[in-house]
Amino acid sequence: MIALAFSCRPKAPSQRRWRRCCAMLVRKRCVVGKRRLALAAIAAIAALACNPDDVVHKVGWFATMRHQRNIKPYARPIPPVAGAVPVSGAELPLTRETADRLTNPRTRTAESLNRGQWVFQTYCLVCHGERGEGNGPVSLAGGGPFPGVPSLVDPTRPKMTDGMIYGMIVEAQRMGRGLMPRYGDKIHGNDRWDLVNYVRSLQLNARGGNR
Q1: Predicted local distance difference test score (pLDDT) of residue 5
Q2: Residues of 133-150 as b/e, b for ≥16 C-beta within 10 angstroms?
Q3: How confident is the model at residue 47 (pLDDT cuts 50, 70, 90)?
Q4: Is 194 in the same domain as 121?
Q5: Are residues 122 and 188 in the same domain?
């Protein structure tokens, strides 16, 4: 009876308190874990209910991809610079009528004439000669094989407008010169009008005038 009394003695109060604390901690952890699971479930449901892109863009780093310097849908384009042409664009084909109506935009300055002289010596001298008299190295008059190279300074020939000379440079065969090759694919931009100005200066020199 005495041994039984000793085996059934109550446990120490400190041990009971320790077990109660452990039980309370376990319950708190369970509550916190359940709350986290609930919040995660709510976030998942909210993400599924919304546009996923909107959720991602809430993160600051990802938002930089949304706010770009690009053209927005239905935005009004910036007006192009005057005289601009598209990179993939092409020139409209010239005819005698459209070429004749063209206006020379280049003033006959020393810079324009010097550039035109370089273009003339590069592409035109071989047929028309140094002074534009039609006696270049490949012309029949200059000892070459090609007949019919006209003089650019002959006063008896019909006077052409600057636009018509421009058309001859770009597409001579469309202007009625069957033997002259086209130079529109070789001479571009202001070089064409500078060449027109230089041809005009050759004509003035042939008549005894100044550039």
Answers
A1: 46
A2: bbbbeebeebeeebeebb
A3: low
A4: yes
A5: yes
